Every structure is written in structure tokens, then in C-alpha cells.
Amino acid sequence: MNLPNKLTVLRVLLIPVFLVFLMIDITPYDKWIALAIFAAASLTDLADGKIARKYNLVTNFGKFMDPLADKLLVCSAMIALIELDRIPAWIVIVIIAREFVISGFRLVASDNGIVIAASYWGKFKTTFQMIMVILMIADIPQLKILTTVIMYIALILTIVSLIDYLVKNWHVMGKDM
Q1: Which domain covers residue 13, as residue numbers?
Q2: What is the rounded average pLDDT of the residues 22-30?
Q3: Which pLDDT does position 175 carry in this prediction?
Q4: 131, 146 Cβ separation under 8 angstroms
């Protein structure tokens, strides 16, 4: 268990803590604590990848768990944000559906001994989704238009990354088609 993998596991462990602060309404600082936890968890995504590549610590565990940790973090946040009426459910459904499709492909690939790393489109998608979530947690009225624009950019990147992923990895389905 190297440092990048520990950061990935930390990201997963921060999810319930983040959700508690996002959903409670005890102090005026709850959303800011939630935002700080989400931002810190998001930064672990940036850090684990950079450290893994720089020090040649890339592992199959990391290739598998890093994107899964991202999905868990972002999808958990978006589902909670539906409850808080900050994001339309249909957008979250599209984003989560993409994640199910990609996870299915990864499962088939894994059964064939293939590990598929995240693409640049997927990384851009994740970055914009994380920025979108941060803006939605902050819920600053003066940034409403920016938040909406970022939300639609994240949605477009979600669809583009899905298409890119399917085109590049269709061979994984092999003769089963």
C-alpha cells in the first residue's frame, strides 16, 4: 500500500464525513466544512496521480480504485445536492449512467486481464464535475450563472468522455458481441 493508494483510500473514507457536514444544518459553517472536506478529497485525486507517475508507483489497484474513488466522491455529492435542490436529477442520472457503462466495460476488461486507465477526457470530466460540486456546495448567489455554465460543461464532458471511452475500448467486448 504505497502513498498514492493510501490517498485514494483516504478519499473514499472522507465521503461519509463530507456528507454528514453537507446534510446537517447545525451551525452556519457546516456547508463550508463540507466544502473544505470535498476540496481536500478532490485534491487527493490530483496528488495521488502525480505522485504515482513521478515516483513510478502506478499499480493495478490504483488504476482501478482511483477512478472508482472519484466516482464515489462525485456521485455521492451530486445525489446529496439533488436533495438540497442545487442540481437537476436528470443531469445526475446522465452522469451516473455514464459511470455504470464505464464500470461495465472495466469489468469485462478485467475479466480479460486488461486494466483500462482513465483517459484525458475522463480526467477533464472529473475536474469539471468537482469544480461544479464545489460551486454548488458554496451556493453563492452571485456565482449562479457560472455554476450553471460549469454544470453544463461537466455534462458535455461526461458525454464526450463516454463516447471517447467506448470508441477506444470497444475491442474489449471482443467476440461476445
Answers
A1: 3-171
A2: 94
A3: 55
A4: no
